[in-house]
Amino acid sequence: MNDYIDARGVSAEKSWHIVRENMSGLLKGQMTTVTDSFEKAAYIRRMAENMGLGTQLEEMGGEYYLHFFNQTRLKENEKPDQPANNMLLIVAGEALGRGEDALGRTLMKGFFHNLRLVKPLPKCIIFINKGVMLTSEGSEIIGDLSSLWEKGVEILSESASLEFYNLSNMLSVGGVASMKTVAERIAKSENTVFI
């Protein structure tokens, strides 16, 4: 097993493939990978935690160090927050509720700021229609969404919505999903909440 993997300059999917190939012997020890973007590190972290591994993410000088360890070695109260396996959150606009847009945007900002502090977290948040503005450059909640993503919440923006609002090249957090993927996620979800 290689206990240090340099994944800088490699795509998130390929990085995860390399990491996975090297973690077969991770029973008692620790392994670290370094990558050059938060998005790649968050993707690798999410995949590792889905396998039951513990992770710790550090940022140093614009590089992201992700440490993996055997989760069974942790005491129960030391385990990181894990997303609920049954909640899907669909966000269809910039504002929360009906009424004044300014109030709705303030409520949405407060909602996501507080969502990252509650348990259990949703497993996935999908942004559709005007909601994709919240995951794009200039959004006031990018920091809160990044915090949720770092905790393992999958964040997806619907592709046609990004294209309609000319935001395809401005996505700041999470990944892109087709409407087919959105429909599949809703169909498989035990608890879907629309806001």
What is the topology?
Blueprint lengths: L3 E3 L5 H11 L7 E6 L2 H13 L2 E8 L2 E8 L16 E5 L9 H15 L8 E4 L14 H9 L3 E5 H6 L10 E3 L1 H10 L2 E4 L1
Parallel strand pairs: 1-2, 5-6, 5-9, 6-7, 7-8
Antiparallel strand pairs: 2-4, 3-4
Structure, described:
It contains six helices and nine strands. It has a five-stranded parallel beta sheet with strand order 8-7-6-5-9. The protein has a four-stranded mixed beta sheet with strand order 1-2-4-3, covered by helices on one side. The protein is of the alpha/beta class. Helix 3 links the parallel strand 5 and strand 6. Residues 72-80 have low confidence and may be disordered. The chain has helices at 12-22, 38-50, 101-115, 142-150, 159-164, 179-188, and strands at 4-6, 30-35, 53-60, 63-70, 87-91, 124-127, 154-158, 175-177, 191-194. The chain is globular. It has two domains: 4-77, Translation Initiation Factor IF3 (2-Layer Sandwich), CATH 3.30.110; 87-194, Hypothetical Protein Ychn, Chain: A, CATH 3.40.1260.
